[in-house]
Amino acid sequence: MIIVYIGLGSNLGGDHASPKQNIVSAIDALGGIQSTQMISVSSLYESKPVGPQDQGNYINAVVKLETNLDAIELLDNLQAIENAHGRERKQHWGPRTLDLDILLFSDQVIHNERLTIPHSEIGNRPFVLVPLAEIEPDCVIPEKGLVTDLISKLDKAGLKVLP
């Protein structure tokens, strides 16, 4: 089994669901992926959008999974969950009903036409690093360093944990 971390984000409702409900539903769906087990789930966080600011705040979380799938098989499952939640890819860094990113896939470094792991922006995003550190404070991100060291260099204004 391989340990993986998935970042979740939503700032649009869909099918009568709020962004928070989309995240909760996606966490349930992640637990149902074949050959995969849910290990832990961070708190939910609210964050300001990256990119265009004419969109609502995001709800974010990170989950830790164990899987026997390879990275592309896992990606295919994540994209199916996004599609089931009404994901449309219209604008880079634009609003979305659901975004699921493979942040880390064990200690592997992967660069191909479909996937970059660790996620290319992981070191710049407090809405990813803070929930990741919550569930794995000693996490080392390949080619970047210790998650807590990366967090100490970032502005965390606008990031808040939800009750």
How is this structure best described in words?
- This protein has helices at 19-30, 71-84, 126-135, 147-152, and strands at 2-10, 36-41, 45-47, 58-67, 99-105, 110-111, 116-117, 140-141, 145-146, 160-161.
- The protein is an alpha+beta fold.
- The chain has a single domain, classed as Alpha-Beta Plaits, CATH 3.30.70.560.
- Strands 1, 2, 3, 4, 5 and 10 form a six-stranded antiparallel beta sheet that branches. Strands 6-7 form a two-stranded antiparallel sheet. The protein has a two-stranded antiparallel ribbon with strand order 8-9.
- It starts with a strand and ends with a strand.
- The model has no long low-confidence stretch (mean pLDDT 91).
What is the number of helical segments per DSSP (H or I, 4+ residues)? Answer: 4
N/C terminus separation: 32 Å
Rounded mean pLDDT is 91
Helix/strand-derived category reads alpha+beta
Low-confidence stretches: none
Give the overall shape, derived from the CA principal axes.
globular
Largest sheet: 6 strands, antiparallel
- So, CATH architecture? 2-Layer Sandwich
What is the fold-level CATH name, i.e. the topology? Alpha-Beta Plaits
